[in-house]
Inverse folding.
């Protein structure tokens, strides 16, 4: 399983510089809420500004404002996540739901939703996991039953990050008893009658994690995404390629940069040693993400390589938290006036979720093992 | 070279090593010594293929190609666990081709690069010893950066002016010390960047290691697919699969790191080789543990060929860029240039 080495072209490097200029202008230190990678802060205005620059939905068809490459998207997201930019609002739509709609949606769905994804006005959340269906997602029970021009939905979804500020939820629902073949995706407008969204307080006190209760929600058939029964494949495709992204190893980056630059004081020899280790492994993981993005641009589907990368990238992120906290000295305080200390404190609490979300490491190892023919 | 051509080149090299250096020969050479006829025949075949000269300009006695072709050749060599001084020989030839005037070495002479060893004295004003010279006893000429010239000079030690004390590394390969009289050592200016020599050696060593890592991974996957216990192949057990996943991660990441470092070197940035060697060092150690764990007791025998690779990996971690040496280099770069910059400029 070889990945082909690649470097950024001059044009791609210029894009990176452009994004850095934008960040220097729009995200001056202290002017925004720092985030830990993808679940950064929600900032609708910032999302709109990014959209206006053409940096959301980059991989969508050009007629909707996309037409850029996966590598270009990597460049933009890397620069943003590196400074903990507030990207949460548009993140899911940009990363996976937009491309899914572009690939599997009706013309009407594409015309009505893709422009809003590109502009940063729409926000998507993932309705997948259920109380009885986490890693074993195919075990899900939320049911959509055909009723006239629509589907009547009953069921519960959990762990839906961002549902309370999302405009739309992509829900994977059961439309027949066939375990994999009976699943269908739906685009759910958040304010539909019968849909109750309740926060599930997270370990760090935040409430972005949500439970969705579908109590006879009627979803028009025009909001069905893809064919009936095609949900499993579509959902898997959404998950698969994104596992190789920079967001899998970059979560602690704003803290790392602050620490490495001496933001908490000079680094002693031990800290410098750990900085070297972190730099080395992050370089190695970045190589993987870049190569995977190139493969996606070549029309390939490196899903095993992506799973391989995510499994070790997320463990690496957790190791970073341990190492930095050690050199920080005392336990970081969540309410510290120092935003980097507060972010580190948050990281300490939430980092166990990094090897769980988007496919647990255990599942990823199964995927890789299968890919290796074991 | 295009990706397609590199792939063809790699296939050719792998075929060459499969034919000239099967696993039985590797163990035979270790047992009978690197002076033995099979060892000499292997080296003759390697030099006839001009492998040490890959990555050196044809105008300077090289076989053409650049760093990317070089790492392809070394990877195939490492993949076969071939007992030969290919890496040390290449770095010496490459260095000698760059001096002005360049110094020619024929195919029946062996020049080896002696990577600076912390035990070496830091001055050469008196009789000195060069430690940790891979394949030193077989060399006609030893090339090393002069320790007292700030990297502006090479020392050239002719074999007849040196007294060899033989040693072996963890893989049973020659790792010798040479005592020399300072008065008999030649010096020649080194026109390149001071660190270019050690970076080249690091790249070469990392390439060898990436080949060995790929071989270890393939060998271990094959083993767990065929070896059965409790009524099924070991590879069906998730706790065993965990080792395979780790092996594949280490192998894929390392090969990519070496390729990227080679690309960077071709573009004039040799520092990526430091990152690559450091990364491959850590990856190799994790891989050795995973491979041995998945193999059980069989992997601990000399008879089974896992040891050919794991002993080499262990030896090579500490050669041409040990962890202790590279850590401060990388830390300094990250601290000075900015952590994010190191990533984006390598």
């Amino acid at each position: 399983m070889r990945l082909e080495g690649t470097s950024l072209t001059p044009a791609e490097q210029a894009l990176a510089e452009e994004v850095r200029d934008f960040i220097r202008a729009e995200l001056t230190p202290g002017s925004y809420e720092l985030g830990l990678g993808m679940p950064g802060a929600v900032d609708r205005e910032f999302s709109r500004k990014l959209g206006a620059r053409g940096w959301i939905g980059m991989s969508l068809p050009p007629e909707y404002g996309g037409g850029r490459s996966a590598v270009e998207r990597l460049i933009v997201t890397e620069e943003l996540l590196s400074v903990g930019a507030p990207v949460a609002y548009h993140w899911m739509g940009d990363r996976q739901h937009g491309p899914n709609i572009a690939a599997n949606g009706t013309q009407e769905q594409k015309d009505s939703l893709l422009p809003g994804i590109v502009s940063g006005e729409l926000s998507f959340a993932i309705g997948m996991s259920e109380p009885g269906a986490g890693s074993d997602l195919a075990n899900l029970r939320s049911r959509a039953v055909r009723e006239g021009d629509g589907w009547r939905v009953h069921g519960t979804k959990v762990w839906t990050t961002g549902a309370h500020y999302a405009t739309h939820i992509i829900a994977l629902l059961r439309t027949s008893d066939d375990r994999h073949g009976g699943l269908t995706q739906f685009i759910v407008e958040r304010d539909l009658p019968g849909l109750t969204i309740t926060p599930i307080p997270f370990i760090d006190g935040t409430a972005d994690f949500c439970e969705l209760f579908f109590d006879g929600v009627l979803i028009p058939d025009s909001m069905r995404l893809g064919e009936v029964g095609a949900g499993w494949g579509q959902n898997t495709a959404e998950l698969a390629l994104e596992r190789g992204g920079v967001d899998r190893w970059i979560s602690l980056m704003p803290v790392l940069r602050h620490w490495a630059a001496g933001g908490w004081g000079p680094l002693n020899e031990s800290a410098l040693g750990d900085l070297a280790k972190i730099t080395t492994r992050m370089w190695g993981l970045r190589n993987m993400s870049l190569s995977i993005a190139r493969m996606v641009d070549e029309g390939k589907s490196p899903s095993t390589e992506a799973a391989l990368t995510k499994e070790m990238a997320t463990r690496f992120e957790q190791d970073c938290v341990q190492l930095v906290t050690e050199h920080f000295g005392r336990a970081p305080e969540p309410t510290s006036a120092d935003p980097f200390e507060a972010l580190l404190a948050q990281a300490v609490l939430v980092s166990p979720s990094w090897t769980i979300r988007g496919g647990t490491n255990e599942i990823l190892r199964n995927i890789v093992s299968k890919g290796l023919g074991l | 070279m295009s990706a397609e051509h590199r792939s063809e080149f790699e296939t050719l090299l792998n075929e060459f090593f499969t034919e000239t250096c099967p696993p039985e020969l590797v163990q035979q050479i270790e047992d009978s010594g690197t002076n033995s006829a099979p060892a000499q025949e292997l080296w003759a075949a390697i030099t006839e293929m001009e492998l040490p000269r890959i990555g050196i300009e044809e105008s300077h006695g090289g076989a053409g190609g650049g760093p990317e072709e070089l790492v392809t050749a070394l990877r195939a060599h490492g993949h076969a666990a071939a007992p030969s001084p290919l890496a040390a020989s290449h770095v010496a030839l490459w260095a000698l081709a760059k001096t002005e005037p360049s110094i020619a070495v024929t195919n029946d002479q062996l020049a080896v690069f002696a990577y600076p060893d912390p035990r070496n004295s830091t001055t050469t004003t008196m009789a000195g010893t060069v430690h940790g010279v891979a394949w030193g006893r077989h060399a006609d000429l030893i090339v090393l950066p002069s320790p007292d010239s700030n990297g502006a000079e090479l020392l050239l030690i002719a074999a007849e002016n040196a007294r060899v004390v033989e040693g072996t590394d963890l893989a049973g390969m020659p790792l010798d010390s040479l005592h020399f009289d300072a008065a008999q050592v030649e010096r020649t200016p080194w026109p390149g960047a001071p660190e270019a020599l050690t970076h080249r050696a690091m790249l070469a060593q990392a390439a060898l290691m990436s080949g060995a890592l790929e071989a270890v991974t393939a060998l271990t996957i094959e083993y767990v697919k065929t070896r059965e216990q409790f009524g099924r192949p070991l590879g069906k057990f998730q706790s065993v699969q965990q080792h395979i996943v780790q092996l594949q991660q280490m192998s894929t990441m390392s090969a990519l790191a070496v390729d990227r470092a080679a690309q960077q070197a071709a573009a004039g940035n040799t520092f990526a080789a430091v990152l690559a060697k450091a990364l491959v060092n850590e990856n190799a150690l994790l891989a050795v543990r995973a491979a041995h764990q998945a193999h059980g007791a069989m992997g601990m025998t000399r008879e089974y060929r896992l040891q050919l690779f794991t002993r080499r990996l262990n030896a090579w971690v500490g050669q041409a860029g040990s962890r202790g040496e590279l850590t401060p280099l990388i830390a300094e770069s990250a601290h000075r240039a900015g952590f994010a910059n190191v990533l984006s400029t390598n």
About this structure: Strands of chain A lie at 124-127, 143-147, 150-157, 168-174, 183-189, 195-199, 210-220, 224-225. Chain A has a mean pLDDT of 96.
